[in-house]
Amino acid sequence: MERLSQHDRQAKLLALLRREGTVRIATLAKVFDVTTETARRDLDELARSGALKRTYGGGASRSLIDEPGIGIRSRAHAAERGLIGTAAAGMVEPGDALMIDCGSTTSLFANALAARDLHLTVVTNCLPVARALGTNAKCRVILCPGDYVPREGGTFGADAVDFIRRFKANKAFIGAGGLTPDGVTDADSLGCSIKRAMVERSDRTLLLLDSSKYDVVQFERVCALSAVDDLLSDATPPKKLAAGLKRAGVRVTLANA
Fold it and tell me: Are strands 220-223 and 183-186 parallel, antiparallel or unpaired?
């Protein structure tokens, strides 16, 4: 294997971090065929420049560190999110196999869904979702393995993504940080990887997103509008976004009080 220059190695390190969200020193040493001391120095230099956040034994994407945690996000637009969650729960049928990702709106959706007392199978990486649906004896809840991120209340990383790909669901319910005519966006790469895997492994994708996220562009694109089948929100999208959704064949459902 040809040794990379320091500049090229660090560029590839950042690309790996954008994809995985976190990296370990031992992994970097193996991937780039360098000593652990060299990998540690690369992380230290990139952390000093502000490109990443140093963690014990590795590094993390700044987008993952800086994005508000699920507890803070759940307090913003709580009424709208609650209505969206209730409307989404009404779109689930007995016997459905679901995938549900981590987020404040999807957690509210899980609370509303648990109250419907349906026979369901659910794959999720979100502990609040698992706890809510676990109260329903008719619901089988399959929790993804992976690295637990307390501020997000869920599991993430390559193990979680590989686990999701073992299954096939008829519906995926995902949240996001932004929605534009160019697609669905979110703040951290770890969450984006989970969302993409759930979209890929489901027949129908339902995006739960309050109207404060319209025309918001965040760090990474999750998918194109054409990958989404349904948008559940609390208000009509602005004109340009509405036109993009229509072209992509996305059904828009507004949650009403």
Answer: antiparallel
**pLDDT (tens digit, 9 = 90+) per residue, 134-149?**
988 999 999 999 999 8
pLDDT of residue 77: 52
The answer to whether 212 and 192 have CB atoms below 8 angstroms apart is no
Q: Smallest Cα–Cα separation from 78: which of 234, 254, 236?
A: 234
Q: Which of 100, 104, 101 is nearest to 70 (CA)?
A: 104
* Residue position matching structure tokens 């420049």: 49
Class of domain 70-254: alpha beta
Q: Counting beta carbons within 10 angstroms of the beta carbon of residue 169, is it exposed (0 to 12), middle (13 to 18) or buried (19 or more)? A: buried
Cβ neighbours of residue 68 under 8 Å, at least 6 residues apart?
none
Closest alpha carbon to 124 in 202, 181, 64, 10: 202
Averaged pLDDT score across all residues of the chain = 88
Q: Which sequence spans correspond to the domains of the chain?
A: 6-65, 70-254
User: pLDDT digits over 209-224, tens only?
Assistant: 999 999 988 888 999 9
- pLDDT tens, position by position, 13-68: 887 776 667 788 988 988 888 999 999 999 998 888 777 788 888 887 765 545 55
Identical topology for domains 6-65 and 70-254: no
Residue with tokens 């895997």: 197
Q: Which residues contact 79 (CB under 8 A, 6 or more apart)?
A: none
Q: What is the assigned CATH class of domain 6-65?
A: mainly alpha
Q: Residue 113 pLDDT > 60, yes or no? A: yes
Describe the strand order of the beta sheet including 205-208 as a list of residue ranges.
139-143, 120-124, 97-100, 171-174, 205-208, 230-233, 251-254
